[in-house]
Structure formats: structure tokens, C-alpha cells
Amino acid sequence: MTQLSFIRAKIEIARLMCHPLIGRLISTIYHNRIHTNGLTIDTNLSIITPEIKASLFWGIYEKAEIRFVKQYIQRDCDVIELGSSLGVVSCQICKVLDANRKLICLEANPELIEIMKLNLHVNCLEHDVIVIDKAIDYDSSRNSINLSFDSDHTGARISNGKVNAKHQWEVKTITLSNLLHSYDISEYVLVCDIEGAEAQIIDKDGLSLSKCRQIILELHDTTLDGRDISIDDMLGTLTQRLGFRLRDQHGPVLCLERP
Q: Which residues, listed in sequence order, are joined to residue 212 by a DSSP beta bridge?
């Protein structure tokens, strides 16, 4: 079997394991409280799809990010997590983070805030976690944006129209530099999965990133100020201009550190 055939086989097996019927069965058996990687994750929310529930059960959900957190995260630093979603990666961060360190979780989708807080409460009793319901944005002419979320909550796009869709919200915005200032953070670790908005931070907020000791992030091809920005472009900026060293990579998920 060639490497390409092996990858295709793995993708097909994962697709079958996360079939909606399997997800519904898992959800029913476990009453929407799914055990995954040492956590108990509440999924009792209509926008959480059966596929996501199955991926949680099999340990596939955010697998690379979780592996990097467990293996590499610098536990003696405050952590800022952008795109916390259900709080699954957040809870894994709590499990390894020193008790006297802050974890700040930013999530743009208001439908996920309460269930994220619940999952953090159940799994992170030793930590006080700060949860912020805002989106990253660097347009100084506005303090909110209209975001349209995918039906499975995993992706978000800026919407130019009036907010009226079922999964469309007006969301307050913040920059990474404002986060650091507001919570008096100096050196920190950044964990990030924000569907392309990371390009704004990499392009426009090098000063904030100069205080960052480690980044665990998923990169996405995107556009910025009318320019196409690729994963390779962002990785090049992080390593060549901003001085990070690539420690590990799994597809578009990277762990970078200061030398």
C-alpha cells in the first residue's frame, strides 16, 4: 500500500467511524455526556452534530491539537486560547497547566459559550478560567462584526448582510494586544483555531507575538486585505520574520516555539 493509499484508507475509516448513525447511537447511550481523552464533555446542544459526537467518542476530535498540548505545552506560562468551541482543548490545557497560571478562552460563537463553561466547570475544578465571547478582528473602524456560522459550528465567515440567519450573530471584537493588556499578561502561550482569522494576528500584531513563547495553532488558507494568504505564507512569516522555530507539525496544525 502506498502512503497516499494509506492516508485515503485512514480518512475513509474515520468517516465511517463518525457516521451520523453512530454519533446518534453514542449520544443516546451516553445521554450526551461523552467520555473522551480523560474528559467528560457535555454535547447536549442542537448545533453539535452526530459526527462531532462520534469524533469525540473515538478521540478524533482536535486530535493533533490535543496531542501537542499534552506533549509540548509550556505549563508554567499563562495561556490564551482563541477559538475554544466546546472547551475540549481548553480542558486538556487545564489538566497540564500549573495551578497558578491563567487560561483565557475566547470564542466568537455565542451559542457555544454556556456549554463551554459547563465543560470547563466539570473538568477544570482546580482552575479559574476566563471566558470571553468575542471575535478577533483588526479593523479599527468597527467594534463588532456579523459572523455567519456553519450548521456544525466549526466554521465562521464575516457576513455583510443584516443579521437574520439562524446561525448568524453580531459579535463584539477584540485584538490579541488588547487581550494581553486587559488581563496584564506578559509572556504567554497561544493556542489558536480561528478559521483563518489567525492571518490578521500574524500580519498585524507582531508586537504581541514577540511576547509569545509558544504557539499551537491550526492554519487555514484565507484572504486578507484583498490578498490570498496561504498556510505556507503564514508559516514563513512566523519562522522567518517573527522568529519562531517549528517544533512539530501534523497537517495544518503546528507547534512553534522561541529558540
A: 188
Domains in the chain, number: 2
Domain that holds residue 1: 1-60
- DSSP, collapsed to helix, strand or coil, labels residue 134 as coil
The C-alpha atoms of residue 30 and residue 216 are separated, in whole angstroms, by 31
CB 146 within 8 A of CB 170: yes
The pTM of the whole model exceeds 0.90 = yes
CA separation, residue 231 to residues 11, 78, 147, 204, 249 (Å):
21, 26, 22, 16, 12
- At 175, list the grid cell: 485584538
Q: 235: Cβ–Cβ under 8 A, 6 or more apart, which residues? A: 219, 246, 254
In 3D space, the residue among 216, 213, 214 whose CA is nearest the CA of residue 191 turns out to be: 216
Q: Are residues 42 and 141 in the same domain?
A: no
Instruction: Give the pLDDT confidence of 52-88 residue by residue, as tens digits.
Output: 999 999 999 999 999 999 999 999 999 999 999 999 9
